[in-house]
Write a structure and sequence with these properties.
CATH topology of the largest domain: Rossmann fold
Low-confidence stretches: none
Number of helices: 11
CATH architecture of the largest domain: 3-Layer(aba) Sandwich
Distance between the termini: 42 Å
Shape: globular
Structural class: alpha/beta
Strand order of the largest sheet: 4-3-5-6-7-8-9-14-13
Oligomer: single chain
Number of strands: 21
Length: 434
């Protein structure tokens, strides 16, 4: 594959021209190898040879999660003997989808993580503690390991959970950075405080955080989760990274902490409205990606379901790439509640700010008049009318409406958050009749 790590520092025009060269190659590859896209081009009378620029992509239909679920095998572009790795998506918004990777795709994953780690300021002198799973058909865990190895970092593959083992590893191996879901840092802090571990003096100084947002838009201040971590561990450096199995690449924050940077030689990103038209600068749109240099299962104009803002102006770090805001929410998870449009992260941020709430899940369902209803199951050791009133008052103050609250034990919430096949905590359950 073509590697050009310096392209992110080129002018925006040079970046665009470079991407368009890779786009032409990607379209020719799909034309020759993808049953799904061959059928799409034929049905829509598309002459792929005339698609030359990023703007020309608007002439093409989008690809959806439903397409991937219904025609999964038709996206595969290589014979079985070229497939090295089989993985699946998490299935957050429906049935998991299988993906296949070739040797080239695995090398591309490794290269992406080198770019991601260096964007976050990591070097070959760092030692990484991997606090995410590397199995369970999970693409990212393997990518993190391969990228750290290629960069020259030492890696300790601890996996997710088990605070005792994490701290034993930190004290034994002395890692300088961690790959982690940020809410797990609170569990590490809690364990350390209960067991007399001086975590502020530990070797761990930086974390690259996945799966949960740490900042608010548009000010990029730490959100409630980020503030809770920082209140205890004041000098820990936290970089957000946004990725998905489908895009096979990631957007990572630099030292300016003002949005995740695009990797121009791996992916093209558009921001589309409900009618699949580009949104204007300053408007939120659905992140829509076209993969570059993927062999096994490349995607063209795939709508991720994630709603973000974009930043096109150059970054103070020297990169001139597009940056993504924190995810506002997922399109399929939008809630219309008592006339207010909500996304689950807005609910999570409120709940994270209440000390008596140990954990929680949010359920949305269709009530008997056909509209959205919200039930929040709160794990707490303090069940009282006072706490229920405090929670509802906070919701009214922040989002103008108050959902139904039901108290249960924290242990029960933990069971709900970690169903048997889950690779990460599940905090939102959509039980609506669609």
């Amino acid at each position: 594959m073509k590697r050009n790590p310096q392209i992110q520092f080129a002018s925006q025009q040079e970046i665009k021209q470079y991407q368009e060269g890779l786009l032409v190659e990607a379209l020719q590859y799909l034309k020759a190898h993808s049953l799904f896209y061959q059928r799409m081009f034929e049905e829509h009378h598309i002459d792929v040879d005339k698609i030359r620029t990023i703007e020309d992509l608007q002439q093409l239909p989008v690809t959806t999660k439903t397409d991937l679920q219904q025609y999964n095998d038709d996206f595969i572009c290589v014979p079985r003997e070229k497939i090295i790795d089989y993985i699946t998506t998490s299935g957050t918004l429906g049935t998991p989808v299988s993906f296949v990777l070739t040797e080239n795709d695995l090398q591309r994953l490794s290269y992406n993580e080198v770019l991601s780690f260096t964007t976050a300021g990591c070097t070959a002198n760092d030692v990484m503690q991997l606090m995410t799973t590397i199995d369970r058909r999970f693409m990212a865990g393997l990518a993190y390991f391969m990228g750290a190895r290629e960069l020259g970092m030492g890696v300790c593959r601890v996996g997710n959970g088990i605070p005792e083992l994490q701290w034993d590893t930190i004290n034994r191996i002395h890692p300088t950075c961690g790959m982690v879901i940020p809410s797990f840092l609170l569990k590490l802090i809690d364990y350390a405080e209960r067991n007399g571990i001086d975590y502020r003096q530990s070797s761990l100084k930086k974390c690259i955080c996945i799966g949960e947002s740490l900042r608010t838009y548009p000010d990029y201040e730490l959100n409630t989760l980020g503030k809770r971590i920082r209140e205890h561990w004041s000098d820990i450096e936290m970089h957000s990274t946004y990725a998905s199995t489908e895009m096979q690449s990631s957007f990572t924050e630099c030292n300016q902490f003002h949005g995740g940077h695009l990797q121009p030689d791996l992916i093209i990103v558009e921001f589309l409205d409900d009618d699949n038209n580009p949104v204007a600068e300053g408007e939120a749109g659905e992140v829509t990606i076209t993969t570059l240099q993927v062999e096994g299962m490349p995607l063209l104009r795939f709508k991720t379901g994630d709603i973000c803002y974009r930043h096109s102006e150059p970054c103070a770090c020297g990169r001139n790439t597009i940056r993504l805001s924190p995810v506002l929410g997922r399109k399929g998870q939008m809630i219309k509640y008592k006339g207010t449009t909500l996304y689950p992260p807005a609910l999570f941020d409120i709940l994270e700010n209440i000390p008596a709430v140990k954990n929680y899940v949010v359920e949305v369902y269709t009530n008997n008049i056909g509209t959205d209803e919200i039930l929040i199951r709160v794990g707490t050791e303090e069940e009282s009318e006072r706490l229920e009133k405090e929670i509802k008052d906070l919701f009214r103050a922040k989002i103008r409406v108050a959902p139904t609250v039901r108290f249960v034990s924290p242990e029960h919430i933990t069971q709900l958050q970690f169903p048997p096949m889950s690779r990460k905590p599940v905090k939102f359950f959509d039980l609506r009749k669609h």
